[in-house]
Design a protein that fits this description.
This protein is α/β, with parallel strands linked by helices. It is built from 14 helices and 11 strands. The chain has a single domain, classed as Amidase signature (AS) enzymes (Alpha-Beta Complex), CATH 3.90.1300.
Length: 426
């Protein structure tokens, strides 16, 4: 059954932007005091925007679909504040390329969602997990994942440099997509790492990612699967598998079993050898590129958090030699993964190391995500599984670079299988 808040359902119902605006405003007014997902929201501005959309002579594919935008992404009519006192009330006056594209497609930009400071840190934010207010929704795209999970937006934009899109998707039980690196322009997004920074997307249905793939002009692919039967799935227990808590290990085994019951052929995918050092390479690259990214902030902002100062001061002790080796290893692993993944239809791996942790001090462990980010491959996290305390656990489906539509198609099929398995167990 289609989710009434999904982009597909809104389009199918032929709703006006004014109708969706009123629905989302009511939802935000009811839920935001508890969830705290929004860094900026102006109901009257949303109504005015909806009226402008409804006055257009033609409807775009996202007409009136409510979208949240992470507050490190520029918007022409709303502040972009990066969760930083230095940028309080800052109005860039221009949309990021991704926001511009969404507006052209008819999207209703609802507001700016909470981020950790500069989308740089694992220090927590004020946003709470809609499934349990005592738990983090993850981060750094904290507000985006929570807003979609709570029905306060149909779609939302995040970013990922480590695990900032996929981990919140897992924690909040929504669909998350980290596209192929640079397949969506990152013009107008706060910079951290040119090698790893990637726009991320959240949705309430996998079908909405199919719409977004059209809006953002992703490569069309032939031979996309329409059934799990016969699908070759590589189960990747990555070099950080030991970081997974028992709840995730059990959930992944269950996911594999459900895929096999639907006819998929699931086999272990060994990512040893150079991949054993890929997380170290990711850290080194972030140390290098983060050092230049926040230099101006450290030089001009008295009292800035020591985490940023540590980057600028290179306290990890990176050298030109160690950085060249990190970049070389990442390059080698990208080609190596393309070769390995060509023997499968899709790769399956955990979206997070655990269910959403209790507390808001930290956004959680990105150990299951950073490898895929530095490899620059597309990842789609499918919800549908739950852990022992009833919190969501996502499963990531990974494809080769530029095969985003394949990852979406397989995740959509897998998500349906997970939902059926959950219903059967209820």
């Amino acid at each position: 059954m289609s989710d009434p808040m999904s982009a597909r359902a809104i389009r199918a119902a032929g709703l006006s932007a004014a109708e969706t605006a009123e629905a989302v405003i009511s939802m935000i007014q009811a839920k935001e005091p508890d969830i705290r997902a929004w860094a900026h929201f102006d109901a009257e501005a949303v109504r005015a925007q909806a009226a402008e959309l409804d006055a257009r002579p033609e409807r775009g594919p996202l007409h009136g679909v409510p979208v949240g935008v992470k507050d490190v992404i520029n918007t022409k009519d709303m502040p972009t504040q990066h969760n930083s006192a230095r940028y309080l009330g800052s109005l860039p006056g221009v949309d990021a390329a991704c926001v511009d594209t969404l507006r052209h497609a008819g999207a209703l930009i609802v507001g700016k969602t909470v981020t950790t400071e500069f989308a740089f840190t694992a220090r927590g934010s004020v946003t709470r997990n809609p499934h349990d207010l005592s738990r983090t929704p993850g981060g750094s795209s904290s507000g985006s994942g929570a807003a979609v999970a709570a029905g306060m937006a149909s779609l939302a934009l995040g970013t990922q440099t480590g695990g900032s899109t996929i981990r919140p998707a897992s924690y909040t039980g929504v669909w998350g997509w980290k596209p192929t690196w640079n397949a969506i322009s990152r013009e107008g997004l706060k910079m951290y790492s040119a090698t790893c920074d990637t726009l991320g997307l959240y949705a309430r249905e996998a079908a909405d990612f199919e719409i977004l793939a059209e809006v953002f002009n992703f490569f069309p692919l032939e031979d996309l699967p329409h059934t799990l039967a016969g699908l070759r799935v590589g189960f990747a227990r990555t070099p950080t598998w030991d970081a997974c808590e028992p709840s995730v290990v059990v959930a992944m085994e269950k996911a594999a079993g459900l895929l096999e019951s639907a006819g998929a052929v699931v086999s272990d995918l060994d990512l040893a050898g150079p991949f054993d050092r890929i997380h170290e390479a990711h850290r080194a690259i972030l140390d290098c590129e983060g050092r230049s990214a926040v230099l101006n902030e450290v030089r001009t902002t008295p009292g800035i958090h020591d985490e940023f100062v540590a980057k600028v001061e290179n306290r990890q002790g990176e050298t030109p030699e160690s950085l060249r080796e990190a970049y070389r290893l990442a390059d080698d692993c990208r080609g190596h993964f393309d070769d390995i993944a060509s023997g499968y239809d899709i790769v399956m791996t955990p979206s997070a190391t655990s269910e959403a942790p209790v507390g808001l001090e930290s956004t959680g462990n990105p150990a299951m995500n950073s490898m895929w980010t530095v490899l620059q491959v597309p990842v789609v996290s499918a919800p549908g599984l739950v852990g022992p305390v009833g919190m969501p656990i996502g499963v990531s489906f990974v494809a080769r670079r530029y095969e985003d539509r394949r990852a979406i198609a397989v995740a959509k099929l897998a998500g349906a299988a997970f939902a059926e398995g959950l219903a059967a167990a209820a």
